[in-house]
Design goal:
About 80% of the residues lie in helices and about 0% in strands. The longest helix has about 35 residues. The chain is mainly α. The chain has two helices and no strands.
Length: about 80
């Protein structure tokens, strides 16, 4: 099980930057497809909000993956006395 945790930690560390890169590319693509200024302003605002929300999620995913990769979750406490 610890091997699986470490492997998934690596997956999470890679998935964080990949998702942000994908979202950024999609934002640039969608903003470039707009034709009017009002439409462009609305699209920029929408994508700014999306990127603003998903950046901390992506960072948290990478931090979680880093700790899993380092083995911080190998032994989880079974009672409050072990904390």
């Amino acid at each position: 099980m610890n091997t699986l945790k470490k492997f998934l930690g690596l997956v999470w560390m890679v998935l964080g930057p990949l998702t942000m890169t994908f979202l950024f590319i999609q934002a640039v693509d969608k903003v470039g497809l707009t034709h009017t200024d009002i439409e462009r302003t609305n699209t920029i605002l929408q994508w700014a909000i999306i990127l603003f929300i998903f950046l901390p999620i992506s960072l948290g995913l990478m931090i979680f993956g880093f700790y899993a990769w380092k083995g911080e979750y190998d032994h989880l406490p079974e009672s409050s006395e072990e904390l």
